[in-house]
Design brief:
By secondary structure, the chain is of the alpha+beta class. Helices cover about 30% and strands about 25% of the residues. It has 8 helices and 18 strands. The strands form 6 sheets. Strands 6-7-13-11-12 form a 5-stranded antiparallel sheet. β11 and β12 form a beta hairpin. The structure holds uridine-diphosphate-2(N-acetylglucosaminyl) butyric acid. Uridine-diphosphate-2(N-acetylglucosaminyl) butyric acid (EPU) binds next to α7.
Length: about 300
């Protein structure tokens, strides 16, 4: 991005601006080239930024928590905006209001402390609220679609907008917001009162299952492929013999075959090559065409 424009952004917003920041530091995969980044201080700061970017016709991307993302080795030319400073949570009776940058495990713990049930499934999902809504993140039978009540966005012109249940258009790992150019700034969840110990037990059970079945100790981007209808991508890759397959330092996890782990200094092109190899392997073995779940950022 042009230096003068970045200087204007620096002087007009409160949040931090980083020039040529390595996105590998922002992704769970620990992979990705550089981009210019802005971390708006709050919702107003974000609005000022979005209005400026619209006036100047500067393109941008919103980064969630970087846990379901593969960034190209060349980085991206668009400005990257991270909303981690939009981190407020408010309890209103049985409803929970959260800003887009709140992390799901934090939100799930807040709900459980208030004896509110519905977000137990989210305790181990390393997503931001905004990213989880876009992807309709889910686990262990729960997903965002089941608990989300309202979503607040800022449009490309900097106007505030509010959406309710009938607008979300949720399906498996998909939502209205995936193809929208609006920025999610906050959400409201409808939960139910329940016994605190039971909520905690459920959360602990889900966290235990996740730890037992997923390779959480190595950098990864969650499940790489969507599950085909009535089957599991992990099972299909496993029976095809894909576990342990490698390109460079990118390896199909030996613990869960739908995860690719970065065993050292894997590049995005290693991962992309491995993804193609896994797809070919599964297609030749079972005739199933796997589709990526992981988001890819490249120019
Ligand atoms: N399986 C194998 N080999 C493997 C992996 C799995 O045989 O290497 C078998 C398991 O034994 C089980 C079945 O496949 O019988 C399903 O596996 P698992 O319970 O681990 O669930 P999954 O279908 O692989 C889905 C979600 C996960 C979510 C878990 C738990 C997708 C693509 N994956 O995984 O979500 O955490 O259920 O609910 O929907 C993600 O979206 O990034 C993600 C990790």
């Amino acid at each position: 991005m042009r230096k003068e424009k970045l200087e204007v952004i620096k002087s007009s917003i409160e949040g931090e601006v980083l020039v040529g920041h390595p996105l590998a530091k922002e992704t769970y995969f620990r992979i990705g080239g550089q981009a210019d980044m802005v971390f708006p201080a709050d919702r107003d700061d974000l609005r000022v930024l979005i209005e400026f970017l619209a006036e100047e016709e500067i393109e941008y991307r919103i980064l969630g928590n970087g846990s379901n993302l593969l960034v190209s080795d060349q980085g991206v030319s668009e400005l990257v905006i991270k909303l981690n400073n939009l981190d407020q949570i408010e309890i209103m009776g049985q409803n929970l209001k959260a800003s887009a940058g709140v992390k799901l495990p934090v939100l799930a713990r807040k709900a459980s402390a208030a004896a509110l049930s519905g977000l137990e499934f989210a305790a181990g999902i390393p997503a931001s609220v905004g990213g989880a809504i876009v992807m309709n993140a889910g686990a262990y039978g729960g997903d965002m679609a089941q608990v989300l009540k309202r979503v607040e966005t800022i449009t490309v012109e900097g106007k505030e907008k509010s959406y309710t249940t009938q607008d979300f258009n949720f399906s498996y790992r998909d939502s209205y917001f995936k193809d929208s150019d609006e920025v999610i700034v906050g959400a409201e969840f409808a939960l139910t009162e329940a016994n605190k110990e039971e909520i905690e037990e459920k959360m602990a059970e889900f966290l235990g299952k996740r730890k037992a079945s997923q390779p959480l100790s190595l950098p990864n981007a969650g499940c790489i492929f969507k599950n085909p209808k009535d089957d599991s991508a992990g099972r299909l890759i496993d029976v095809a013999g894909g576990k342990g397959m490698k390109v460079g330092d990118a390896m199909v996890s030996k613990k869960h075959a739908n995860f690719i782990v970065n065993t050292g200094s894997a590049t995005a092109s290693d991962v992309l090559e491995l993804i193609e190899k896994v797809k070919d392997l599964v297609y030749n073995d079972s005739g199933v065409k796997l589709e990526e779940e992981v988001n890819l950022w490249e120019d």
